[in-house]
Specification:
alpha/beta; five-stranded parallel β-sheet; 9 helices; 5 strands; 58% helix
Length: 235
């Protein structure tokens, strides 16, 4: 009995000592985890502050760099121009040659998986070339803009113009799409993406429709102030 009683007291003392040690370990561990969490949160915050803004180019062959060397397209020239102007911007080219506004709308969700700060939207040229009803082009662009606005992404809409061979009525209806949408959704508008380049043989490829490297340079120079303003609004 005495031996059992003595053993019992020893067990109790050992148990208390063990519990105390566990409590101290838990407190130390939780404190360490809390400190680690603070460090992790701070690291994420600093990384977020230091990360450059992301600009997504969402368009067709005019921005995809059709027929050009990799460093001569619109995306690399624009990114270089922004850097020269003192802006550290990550330019992501999500443009696809041949895209209509319908095709752009269909792929918008997966093209913007990583939420950008701003989008330069240039679509509609292929709609006009194919004679798509302007009302359909307008509706597709409106849906794209609405989705971007719902994601709180700032938008610069680059306008297009219908080719003369489509006739006056078609041209008037098509050309009104871009200023109308810019006004309705209160977004920035660059009236004509090919301004200064369209119908200039020396600034286009042999097909007469796509800008060559020099043509892209002209486009970048002209649209650069609008892009910088867009990114300023998005910061």
């Amino acid at each position: 009995m005495n031996l059992a009683f003595g053993q019992g007291r020893t067990v109790i003392k050992f148990t208390r000592h063990m519990v105390s040690g566990i409590n101290k370990f838990a407190k130390t561990t939780l404190a360490g985890l809390g400190f680690a969490a603070v460090l992790a949160t701070s690291s994420v915050a600093y990384a977020s502050e230091d990360a450059p803004q992301t600009l997504v180019l969402f368009g067709d062959s005019l921005m995809a760099g059709y027929g050009l060397d990799q460093d001569a397209g619109f995306a690399p020239q624009l990114e270089a121009a922004l850097k020269d102007a003192g802006h550290d911007i990550r330019v992501v080219n999500s443009s696809v040659s041949g895209d209509t506004t319908a095709a752009g709308l269909a792929r918008l969700d997966w093209a913007l998986v990583d939420k950008p700060d701003a989008v330069l939207l240039e679509l509609g040229a292929n709609d006009a070339l194919r004679g798509v009803e302007p009302s359909q082009t307008r509706d597709n662009l409106a849906q794209i803009i609405e989705k971007l606005r719902a994601m709180d992404v700032d938008v610069l809409l680059a306008g297009m113009m219908a080719p003369p061979n489509m006739g006056t009525d078609y041209g008037d209806e098509f050309n009104s799409i871009y200023p109308d949408l810019a006004g309705r959704y209160q977004i920035e508008l660059y009236p004509f993406f090919l301004d200064g380049v369209a119908a200039e043989p020396g600034l286009n490829l042999d097909d007469g429709m796509h800008p060559n490297a020099d043509g892209v340079k002209v486009i970048v120079e002209r649209i650069l102030p609008e892009v910088i303003e867009l990114l300023g609004n998005a910061s």
